[in-house]
Amino acid sequence: QVQLVESGGGLVQAGGSLRLSCAASGRTFSSYAMGWFRQAPGKEREFVGGTAWSGDSTYIADSVKGRFTISRDSAKNTVYLQMNSLKPEDTAVYYCAVGRASYDFWGQGIPVTVSS
Question: Residue 55 above 80 pLDDT?
Answer without folding.
Answer: no
